[in-house]
Amino acid sequence: MNNNKIAGIALASFSVLVWGVTFVATKALLTDFSALEILLYRFVAAYLALWVICPKVEKISLRENLIFALAGLSGVVVYQFAENTALHFTACCNVSIIVSLCPMLTAIIAQIFLREHHITRWFIIGFVVAISGVTMVSFDGYGTIEFNLRGDLLALFAAVCWGFYSLCVTVINRRRYNAVCSTRRIFFFAVLFMIPLVVVGTHTEAGSPSHFSFDAAVNAARFTKAANVLNMLFLGVVASGLCFWAWNRACSILGTVSVSAGIYLIPVVTIVFAHFFLGENLSALGIAGAMLTIVGLFIGGKRRRTR
Predict the structure, then answer these.
(1) Euclidean distance between CA atoms 184 and 91, whole angstroms
(2) Does the global pTM surpass 0.85?
(3) What is the pLDDT of residues 280-298, one digit of tens each?
């Protein structure tokens, strides 16, 4: 049991570290790619990588495939596209801090739909403190208020979607499927849901987050840049293929709500890497908001960790 817990903590920690860097990698790719293009290339690479890791196939009934489809829609397509688009409009530090609300939103959704009791007095106090911190970060002053709020609200919407993805993962883990196979199946449905977006995206103008280009000359120029290839492989193979599997496995060992507490540390990783690689710096207001958000998240999980 102790070895399992250590393994679960290690897997969750690995995911948190890598996901903290993904905001920086995605922001860098947005120079040459749209949010939709990054989404598709990233998860096609992840899907293929998981086939290499585990070519095993599990038989799943048509009815049970529905929960995998919902997980792919909420946790990959909608969440990732909203997050990528948010990065198009605002700083990656903002997005990572706002998305750190995922554990609280996961707890709320779990209580509503799974009747798991996570809402306590400490949770409510922590939620208010965290939301106050997020508000301070949103008005940090990177540009006009309207410009920032567009991306910040998209990041908040992404956090809500992750809560529903966590709900689906909880249900999937109760079925005791192979972790790699179940993660790969989620990505399969996610890629299917992306196809209509790609069709529509080919008719949108360049520079739009939903634009998708099949132009051979454009793609040749983009994919001959070593930084673009490395960032895309990092997002696809490591951050998506390995980390989604590691996260789902950690959830099955430690519980979805408990593991989600690790998301608290993602903004710290992002802020450090964004500072050194993108030159992003939070103002005094932004730093205070980030600290307030993280403190609120820990307060909200106090009673749950004690139990």
Answers:
(1) 30
(2) no
(3) 776 777 778 778 877 887 7
